[in-house]
Amino acid sequence: MDDDSNMRSLDTERINIHEYYEVEHWTKELNTNVEALKQAVATVGTSIKDIEKYLKQ
């Protein structure tokens, strides 16, 4: 069983690309890979809504 006691609560509006559990969660949630997610953040910022729009292009 995974120990999630060190995880902070997940922000549902913004991503912290430096937190592995957030990157893992959002790559699964947005059906993308780490590199595409990082590129989206670099291009449009950390807003999940903006990242979703960018990835759908």
Description of the molecule:
With 57 residues, the protein is mainly α. The protein has a domain at 29-55. It has three helices and no strands. It has helices spanning 20-29, 34-44, 48-55. α2 (34-44) crosses α3 (48-55). The model has no long low-confidence stretch (mean pLDDT 89). It comes from Mucilaginibacter paludis DSM 18603. InterPro entries: DUF3606. This is DUF3606 domain-containing protein.
Name the shape in a single word: globular
Task: Calculate the mean pLDDT score and round it.
Answer: 89
Task: Give a count of the beta strands, DSSP E runs of length 2 or more.
Answer: 0
Number of helices: 3
Structural category is mainly alpha
> How would you sum up the major sheet?
none
Helix content estimate? 40-55%
- Uncertain regions: pLDDT < 50 for 5+ in a row? none
| Helix and strand sequence | HHH
Radius of gyration: 11 Å
Strand content: under 5%
- Tell me the span between the first and last alpha carbons: 37 Å
Protein name: DUF3606 domain-containing protein
Pfam families: DUF3606
InterPro entries: DUF3606
Organism: Mucilaginibacter paludis DSM 18603
